């Protein structure tokens, strides 16, 4: 039996950094994700004057409930949407002039609903170029609070950013949400806010956030990343092998652990205990129709292994993955076609026909998930190459070595 330890959750690490920075006291994060996204988040905090010490096993953050320690700063968010969406909200509750910019990829991604909501709350925020996109400047003087309505139909991160900053306002926030994708990520936010001492009340479609100080957590353990786990789990299902991911099971906060259920529906044996998941490939992969609105980071993982199923695989209700690191519906379709597979897409769906992939080079579009997903499919199609293997650094710098380890252990040549 193969055991694979996957790196810490990006979503949990990013939220923990925000919460620790905003809390009174010192927080120690154990086993944080160390990758481009989370280093970018930590360096953003450092540019804002927060003290973040990064050791090999733990990161220590000195909280500053009053906000950034500098009156002016420039923050470069790289490719990280958590950084690019959460940090402008954090600084808005403090005082000073803060300019944010991001990579070309991240500049293309939307944050209009969030910046409009912040403006409605009285925050002085200006976009340098296109409205609702980076770069932007926040001239911060604190947030009074109040009631707002938010459309989170393109990204739940708009809601998470507002929830996280809610306790730092002087009167609290009431956020009524009209549409929401990726709902399990909001549950992570609420659970983690609770862990740092703030309880959010739900009233129908509204989230009522009290103005209340966060408290530091002496030792906060980051659970392994469930989206990252989808690669070894899919690899086991695809090749008829078995892999166990310790530290990630039914007790995890992340919705993406449910990807294992998709593999079960396809015919894999899945053993989900409270704190571990094991997937064993059975030699059968069935086609299916699946709604992935809640777990859309794992769409590329499923799309890449789909040709090996015995019937069509149709993935629905994922329009928002067109505004991720790339247009993931089109990137999946393009690469499947390069492999000689028949595929159709619509506004919010993709359907993949069974087939035998031929050798091809995968166009990664700078998207870690396209790279990792098609590398997994490559376990059954020797010679598949990636045009940008390095883009995995966004969330899993050691991905290629880890996959080579599985290949060797399973004797896949
Ligand atoms: O809040 C988070 O940590 C995330 C929310 C999701 O984004 P959307 O809400 O934009 O779908 C997910 O895709 C992303 O990888 C991480
Ligand atoms: C969409 C993703 O990242 P983010 O939105 O946090 O940049 C992802 O990791 O798949």
TrEMBL record:
<feature type="binding site">
    <location>
        <position position="156"/>
    </location>
    <ligand>
        <name>3-phosphoshikimate</name>
    </ligand>
</feature>
<keyword id="KW-0963">Cytoplasm</keyword>
<feature type="binding site">
    <location>
        <position position="157"/>
    </location>
    <ligand>
        <name>3-phosphoshikimate</name>
    </ligand>
</feature>
<keyword id="KW-0057">Aromatic amino acid biosynthesis</keyword>
<dbReference type="Pfam" id="PF00275">
    <property type="entry name" value="EPSP_synthase"/>
</dbReference>
<feature type="binding site">
    <location>
        <position position="10"/>
    </location>
    <ligand>
        <name>phosphoenolpyruvate</name>
    </ligand>
</feature>
<protein>
    <recommendedName>
        <fullName>3-phosphoshikimate 1-carboxyvinyltransferase</fullName>
        <ecNumber>2.5.1.19</ecNumber>
    </recommendedName>
</protein>
<feature type="binding site">
    <location>
        <position position="155"/>
    </location>
    <ligand>
        <name>3-phosphoshikimate</name>
    </ligand>
</feature>
<dbReference type="InterPro" id="IPR006264">
    <property type="entry name" value="EPSP_synthase"/>
</dbReference>
<dbReference type="GO" id="GO:0003866">
    <property type="term" value="F:3-phosphoshikimate 1-carboxyvinyltransferase activity"/>
</dbReference>
<dbReference type="GO" id="GO:0009423">
    <property type="term" value="P:chorismate biosynthetic process"/>
</dbReference>
<dbReference type="InterPro" id="IPR036968">
    <property type="entry name" value="Enolpyruvate_Tfrase_sf"/>
</dbReference>
<feature type="binding site">
    <location>
        <position position="324"/>
    </location>
    <ligand>
        <name>3-phosphoshikimate</name>
    </ligand>
</feature>
<feature type="binding site">
    <location>
        <position position="11"/>
    </location>
    <ligand>
        <name>3-phosphoshikimate</name>
    </ligand>
</feature>
<feature type="binding site">
    <location>
        <position position="320"/>
    </location>
    <ligand>
        <name>3-phosphoshikimate</name>
    </ligand>
</feature>
<dbReference type="GO" id="GO:0008652">
    <property type="term" value="P:amino acid biosynthetic process"/>
</dbReference>
<feature type="binding site">
    <location>
        <position position="157"/>
    </location>
    <ligand>
        <name>phosphoenolpyruvate</name>
    </ligand>
</feature>
<feature type="binding site">
    <location>
        <position position="369"/>
    </location>
    <ligand>
        <name>phosphoenolpyruvate</name>
    </ligand>
</feature>
<keyword id="KW-0808">Transferase</keyword>
<feature type="binding site">
    <location>
        <position position="328"/>
    </location>
    <ligand>
        <name>phosphoenolpyruvate</name>
    </ligand>
</feature>
<dbReference type="GO" id="GO:0009073">
    <property type="term" value="P:aromatic amino acid family biosynthetic process"/>
</dbReference>
<feature type="binding site">
    <location>
        <position position="109"/>
    </location>
    <ligand>
        <name>phosphoenolpyruvate</name>
    </ligand>
</feature>
<comment type="subunit">
    <text>Monomer.</text>
</comment>
<dbReference type="InterPro" id="IPR023193">
    <property type="entry name" value="EPSP_synthase_CS"/>
</dbReference>
<dbReference type="InterPro" id="IPR001986">
    <property type="entry name" value="Enolpyruvate_Tfrase_dom"/>
</dbReference>
<comment type="pathway">
    <text>Metabolic intermediate biosynthesis; chorismate biosynthesis; chorismate from D-erythrose 4-phosphate and phosphoenolpyruvate: step 6/7.</text>
</comment>
<comment type="similarity">
    <text>Belongs to the EPSP synthase family.</text>
</comment>
<comment type="function">
    <text>Catalyzes the transfer of the enolpyruvyl moiety of phosphoenolpyruvate (PEP) to the 5-hydroxyl of shikimate-3-phosphate (S3P) to produce enolpyruvyl shikimate-3-phosphate and inorganic phosphate.</text>
</comment>
<feature type="active site" description="Proton acceptor">
    <location>
        <position position="297"/>
    </location>
</feature>
<feature type="binding site">
    <location>
        <position position="10"/>
    </location>
    <ligand>
        <name>3-phosphoshikimate</name>
    </ligand>
</feature>
<dbReference type="GO" id="GO:0005737">
    <property type="term" value="C:cytoplasm"/>
</dbReference>
<feature type="binding site">
    <location>
        <position position="394"/>
    </location>
    <ligand>
        <name>phosphoenolpyruvate</name>
    </ligand>
</feature>
<feature type="domain" description="Enolpyruvate transferase">
    <location>
        <begin position="5"/>
        <end position="403"/>
    </location>
</feature>
<dbReference type="InterPro" id="IPR013792">
    <property type="entry name" value="RNA3'P_cycl/enolpyr_Trfase_a/b"/>
</dbReference>
<feature type="binding site">
    <location>
        <position position="15"/>
    </location>
    <ligand>
        <name>3-phosphoshikimate</name>
    </ligand>
</feature>
<feature type="binding site">
    <location>
        <position position="297"/>
    </location>
    <ligand>
        <name>3-phosphoshikimate</name>
    </ligand>
</feature>
<keyword id="KW-0028">Amino-acid biosynthesis</keyword>
């Amino acid at each position: 039996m193969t055991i694979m330890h996957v790196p810490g959750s990006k979503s949990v690490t990013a939220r923990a950094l925000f919460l620790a920075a905003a809390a009174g006291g010192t927080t120690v994060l154990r086993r944080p994700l160390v990758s481009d996204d989370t280093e970018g988040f930590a360096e953003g905090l450092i540019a804002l004057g927060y003290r973040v010490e990064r050791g090999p096993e733990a990161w220590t953050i000195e909280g500053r409930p009053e906000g950034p320690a500098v009156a002016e700063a420039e923050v470069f968010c790289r490719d990280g949407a958590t950084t690019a969406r959460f940090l402008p909200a954090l600084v808005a509750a403090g005082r000073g002039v803060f300019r944010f910019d991001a990579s070309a990829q991240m500049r293309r991604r939307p944050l209009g609903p969030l910046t409009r909501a912040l403006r409605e709350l009285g925050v002085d925020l200006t976009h340098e170029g296109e409205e609702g996109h980076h770069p932007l400047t926040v001239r911060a003087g604190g947030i009074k609070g109040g009631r707002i309505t938010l459309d989170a139909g393109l990204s739940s991160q708009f809601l998470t950013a507002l929830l996280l900053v809610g306790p730092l306002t002087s009167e609290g926030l009431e956020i009524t949400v009209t549409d929401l994708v990726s709902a399990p990520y909001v549950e992570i936010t609420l659970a983690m806010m609770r862990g740092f001492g703030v309880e959010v009340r739900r009233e129908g479609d509204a989230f009522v956030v009290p103005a209340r100080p966060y408290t530091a957590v002496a030792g906060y353990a980051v659970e392994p990343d469930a989206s990252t786990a989808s690669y070894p789990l899919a690899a086991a299902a695809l090749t008829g092998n078995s892999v166990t991911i310790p530290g990630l099971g039914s007790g995890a906060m992340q919705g993406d652990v449910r990807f294992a259920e998709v593999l079960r529906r396809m015919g894999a044996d899945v053993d989900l205990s409270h704190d571990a998941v094991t997937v064993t490939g059975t030699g059968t992969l069935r086609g299916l129709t699946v709604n992935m609105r809640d777990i859309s980071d794992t769409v590329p993982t499923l799309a890449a292994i789909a040709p090996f199923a015995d019937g069509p695989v149709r993935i629905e209700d994922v329009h928002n993955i067109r505004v991720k690191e790339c247009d993931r519906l089109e990137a999946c379709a393009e690469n499947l076609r390069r492999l000689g597979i028949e595929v159709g897409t619509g506004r919010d769906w993709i359907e993949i026909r069974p087939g035998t992939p031929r050798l091809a080079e995968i166009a990664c579009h700078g998207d870690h998930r396209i790279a990792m997903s098609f590398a997994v499919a490559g376990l059954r199609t020797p010679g598949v190459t990636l045009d940008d293997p390095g883009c995995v650094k966004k969330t899993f710098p050691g991905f290629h070595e880890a996959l080579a380890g599985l290949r060797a252990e399973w004797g896949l040549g």
